[in-house]
Amino acid sequence: FERIVALSAEALLEPAFDAEEVELQRQEQVAAIARREDSLTRRSIDLFYETLYRKHPYGFPTLGTAESVPLITVSQLRGFHRRMMRPEDLVVGVAGDVRVEDVVKLLEGAFGGLRSRTAAPKTPVPEAPVVEPRQAVLRRDKAQAHLVIGFLGTTVDAADRHAMEILNAIFSGQGGRLFIELRDKRHLAYSVTSFHQEGVEPGAFAIYIGTTHANVDKAREGIWQEIRRVRDEPMDARELEDAKRYLIGSNDIDLAGLSTVAQSMALDELLGLSYKETFRQARRLQSVTAAQVQAVARRYLREEASVEALITKSAK
User: Fold this and answer.
1) Closest by alpha carbon to 33, among 21, 23, 46, 19?
2) CA 112 to CA 141: how far, in whole Å?
3) How far apart are the first and last CA of the chain?
4) Alpha carbon 172 to its chain's center
5) Rounded to an integer, what distance in angstroms lies between the CA atom of residue 122 and that of residue 124?
6) How does pLDDT run across 179-210, given as a tens digit for each residue?
7) How high is the pLDDT of residue 121?
8) Could you tell me the residue ranges of all domains in the chain?
9) pLDDT tens digits, residue range 96-113?
10) Are 111 and 87 contacting, i.e. CB atoms less than 8 angstroms apart?
11) Looking at domain 134-312, which CATH architecture does it have?
12) Pairwise CA distance, residues 312 & 129, whole Å
């Protein structure tokens, strides 16, 4: 453990930014960007985020672009490192068979000399609410069309974030409403799912479907039918409990690994939730009611607040 702390401190506080290694990583990242562009599923989701977030960094592709990555210099990397390495923002999560006193002593020795060298990074301007439907269309002459319909979502500390998790579980997966209704029953989808991402600022909730070009309109209407159903019709108690059981079980599996526990505690503390939030997840999920899930759907999944991203073939 002592060796791990020492190596981690060295990597964080004294990175070499070797020019050859930076260039190797740059090439690998450009290759990853090319692979992402070749995946129209991934590209449709990126297009959705670009359209949802007009100003906020959440709309930027995580890997960067084929144009931006080649322009990054070693000097810029060093400057970014100086700006980000601030003791006020450092959280260390530790899980395992260790003594608190020993851990504190090791960390004080490893990181005690860290000092702020720059002002705190600027906070991004919050994204304005979506007040009318938006649509972005990208033309690709491929066999399959890709459609994403989504909305601004919850924050990491929102009171209704657990209801949103359950809503997502009800929609997604092979046993979810979308798969059963749009793929199994109506044969409109090659693949279909929902996803949600929380953020310090409002994240996103969205539904993705891969379909034929001829079925885009039917797929779109099918998605909206399922959105209206979850907003307007009472939820079955068994469906709610199944979603809770799945989420709580997944959380329990994650917490079986000490690395996941340490990471979750550190991130929750960094985000201002308290490291204890990791262990409160099951209780919070269990307390969510069907009415709360329906309220989340009504609050966030509104036509006037919707954003659509579509990749389809060229118009004739």
Assistant:
1) 46
2) 57
3) 64
4) 15
5) 6
6) 999 999 999 999 999 999 999 999 999 999 99
7) 77
8) 2-38+57-111, 134-312
9) 999 999 999 999 999 998
10) yes
11) 2-Layer Sandwich (3.30)
12) 27
